[in-house]
Amino acid sequence: MKKTITVLPGDGIGLEVVNATTAVLDKVAEMYGHEFEYKYADIGGSAIDKHENPLPPETVDTCKSSDGVLLGAVGGPKWDNHPSGMRPEQGLLGIRKALQLFANLRPVTGHESLTDSSSLKKEVVDNVDLMILRELTGGIYFGTPQERREVDGEEAALDTMIYKKSEIARIVRQGFEMAKLRRGKLTSVDKANVLESSRLWRETVEEIKGDYPEVEVEHMLVDNAAMQIIREPKQFDVMVTGNMFGDILSDAASMLTGSLGMLPSASIGEQAPGLYEPVHGSAPDIEGQNKANPLAMISSAAMMLKYSFKMTEEADALDRAVSDVLSAGHRTGDIVKEGENALSTDEMTDKVIEVL
Amino acid sequence: MKKTITVLPGDGIGLEVVNATTAVLDKVAEMYGHEFEYKYADIGGSAIDKHENPLPPETVDTCKSSDGVLLGAVGGPKWDNHPSGMRPEQGLLGIRKALQLFANLRPVTGHESLTDSSSLKKEVVDNVDLMILRELTGGIYFGTPQERREVDGEEAALDTMIYKKSEIARIVRQGFEMAKLRRGKLTSVDKANVLESSRLWRETVEEIKGDYPEVEVEHMLVDNAAMQIIREPKQFDVMVTGNMFGDILSDAASMLTGSLGMLPSASIGEQAPGLYEPVHGSAPDIEGQNKANPLAMISSAAMMLKYSFKMTEEADALDRAVSDVLSAGHRTGDIVKEGENALSTDEMTDKVIEVL
Ligand SMILES: CC(C)[C@H](C(=O)O)[C@@H](O)C(=O)O
Ligand SMILES: CC(C)[C@H](C(=O)O)[C@@H](O)C(=O)O
């Protein structure tokens, strides 16, 4: 098969990890007789520098005309107080909206050899395997009004958390579908004892659940969920929640397995190409030093093979290669134990290609 | 000194833990020559049952005419789908607003003998000592509009996250004051890369920090904060944040020390009496069985002695008594180790009185 992939290196270590990943994808293409064509475009801080726009229209066009999008990372202190007021994150929020990527999938699994470096006890996190499904194009991230306003004679600022029923329904359905293919349990997270938008969320889950009798569904308040994810993460299979709660919970969950540098994510919509990016940030402190751990980006590419290209076998092979490389004890600097030898980005990439 | 205390037992184990606490307070009064007069009032589910109102006006009046308020717990499955649509939590939200309790203090410290039961590694949580300061009468909990609405021909629901500058300033100042009395570090948590209300929050912190040169201040995004609190909780001294973020982060933090059943909280305003309640819920499953752990409520009363009555010595004595009882190995069912003997609520209360 021939597939066109838009590559958005972004900022910081983004370029290094996408380069590592295209090298690995080339190997996959060679092995399975595919052809991957890469188109590069700018996003985030580097796009502000070049185009004075964190999301130039060409970038959106390039993404739309491709089969899948790989994104490295965006952001960095350089743009924290940019004179134009433009922020790299606007590029990320903008591309999610432009491609209508309403579903953000963040699988949290740990490689057993790494759970040692978790701050949680080994027995709590060993074999954790949960999927956080976060709504990505609605809620308080995009609700209007979002503005400054004078209230009682002084300055005030406000944001609007709003959900339409159809927006809730499509992500919740995705949650049920996903739970069906996994262990059959869906936890819907909201704050229905306080928020009206959460009450509509909960009602919608209740209406849909009849269509999925094989899935066990529970509602959990977000404060309790933040507790439970630390207390006993293995109780969860799929967690589905809104944009803001998903942002917070998925970052908390990424701490569980001691593998933050290894966690992938997928953002998908109904039609447009999916966008695949590592959970970690742009790590400007190690930019350009050939030190970055490319495994999260490589695993994100495996998600692209699976979800966007339906290349299940290829995706599995790639996941296995990552796992085997770790089992063999290969480590980049972020996950190496004291006294052990750390591989560079390039060396780690070569190991994955070798094992493939 | 003579002090009037309003006691709001609320629901579930609320009555048992407030009874335990007034017994302990009587002992404190006897020892230090004070007089505590208790006035009882209804709130939450039990108030719905009796008055068809989770916060009867008499309750507000009683609270306002007293020097401090002790609250057991509110809520329970019995009222989850009450025909009237009334919810016990409305009582809690209502009393916070009526008394203008804008500052919620949740200290997180662990008794060393209990950190074993945390899901986090001992070295990560031993000697954790942080204070979460949550804004309690503003933000998305109280912003309007909060409503159902038709959008694009379908049902939608929305909430409004709004802060006036003065609301932010008063809680942030409290954070600085508190940090000054502790280890001199303040972490302000927001989501300024996405939310306008967070940007105003951050600006306000920046404006105020000049008045507190002795305090080191940092800004942290809420998603990162949820990670860091699990990864390395000892990096924090005082964390100050908005209502919703504080709800989530303080529940996550309550998991750290393995002492959820022991964590107190204080909600205070500028003038009205403060309200003191345990962090744990109403635990309807063990209601009326003389099994509840009263220590969180007792520690909350110690906070009342300290913050509302300025009885520092008495508060310290009470805190020490709780700590000594734990050091002596006394445990209620929630914290007992397998094979050990669990004390009843009454027995635990007697131990505290004895040690005092
Ligand atoms: C960078 C930021 C806008 C973004 C978000 O909040 O969605 C990030 O935290 C994420 O989770 O992808
Ligand atoms: C019961 C609920 C409304 C309340 C809140 O969200 O404030 C509780 O979770 C708390 O933290 O005190």
From TrEMBL, chains A, B:
A UniProt-annotated Pfam family: Iso_dh
Protein's name in the database: 3-isopropylmalate dehydrogenase
Role, per record: Catalyzes the oxidation of 3-carboxy-2-hydroxy-4-methylpentanoate (3-isopropylmalate) to 3-carboxy-4-methyl-2-oxopentanoate. The product decarboxylates to 4-methyl-2 oxopentanoate.
Alphabetical UniProt keywords: Amino-acid biosynthesis, Branched-chain amino acid biosynthesis, Cytoplasm, Leucine biosynthesis, Magnesium, Manganese, Metal-binding, NAD, Oxidoreductase
Cofactor note: Binds 1 Mg(2+) or Mn(2+) ion per subunit.
Pathway: Amino-acid biosynthesis; L-leucine biosynthesis; L-leucine from 3-methyl-2-oxobutanoate: step 3/4
NCBIfam families according to UniProt: leuB (TIGR00169)
Annotated Mg(2+) binding sites: 223, 247, 251
Organism: Salibacterium lacus
Site (Important for catalysis): 141, 191
A molecular function GO annotation: 3-isopropylmalate dehydrogenase activity
Matches recorded under InterPro entries: IsoCit/isopropylmalate_DH_CS, IsoPropMal-DH-like_dom, Isopropylmalate_DH
EC class: oxidoreductase
Residues covered by the Isopropylmalate dehydrogenase-like domain: 4-352
Residues noted as binding substrate in the record, renumbered to the chain: 96, 106, 134, 223
Cofactors (names): Mn(2+); Mg(2+)
Subunit structure and binding partners: Homodimer.
Family per record: Belongs to the isocitrate and isopropylmalate dehydrogenases family. LeuB type 1 subfamily.
Subcellular location: Cytoplasm
Enzyme Commission numbers on file: 1.1.1.85
Binding site for NAD(+): 76-89, 281-293
